[in-house]
Amino acid sequence: MKRADVARLTSLERKALLEELAAMVAIGEFNLGDASRILRSTMLGMDRKTFARAVKLAASVIAKLEDGPNANPTLETLNKVFAPFGGKVALTFPRIEEPRPLDDAEKQRRAMLRAALAKSKRQRRRSTEP
Fold first, then answer.
1. Cα–Cα distance, 45 to 115 (Å, whole number)
2. Does an H or E element contain 128, and which?
3. Which of 35, 87, 97, 112 has its Cα between 20 and 30 A from that of 16?
4. How far is residue 65's CA from residue 1's CA, in Å, rounded to a whole number?
């Protein structure tokens, strides 16, 4: 998924993509750092330094959140990171009933998000290699 692809989405399609991303975080398929990376790089097309300035955080905080497998950001940090997308950190509890099967549109959105994360991680590795 490229920035241009996101720009062509309607507001309802972007909202569905955001909701799908949140669902993937909720079930543990992505962590909050993965979500941050996807939103920053794909939705906004920003590098970490630019995004950090925009949300008034240090670039090292963004790097630690996105790259650290054991990152432990504060609620304030998470709210700053997700605020540009209308997101906020909230308390939720898992559903008791079985989730309904994903429809084709949901499957497609999840595939797009997985591809966006993989691409972003590849680009990051290439830019940090000596």
1. 15
2. helix 104-128
3. 97
4. 22
**In the chain, how long is the greatest CA-to-CA distance?**
50
C-alpha–C-alpha distance, residues 25 and 51, integer Å: 21
φ, ψ of residue 36 in degrees (nearest 5):
-60, -45
Whether the Cβ atoms of residue 102 and residue 110 lie closer than 8 Å to each other: yes
Is the sign of the CA dihedral 118, 119, 122, 123 positive or negative? negative
Quote the Cα angle for 10-79-122, to 5°.
65
CA-to-CA dists, residue 69 to 17, 66, 115, angstroms: 24, 8, 19
Question: Helices marked H in 9-103 — which ranges?
Answer: 11-26, 32-38, 48-55, 59-67, 75-82
Q: Report residue 4's pLDDT band, with 50, 70 and 90 as the boundaries.
A: confident
Q: Which two tokens stand for residue 44?
A: 């906004």
| Most confident range, picked from 33-37, 68-72, 110-114, 120-124 | 33-37
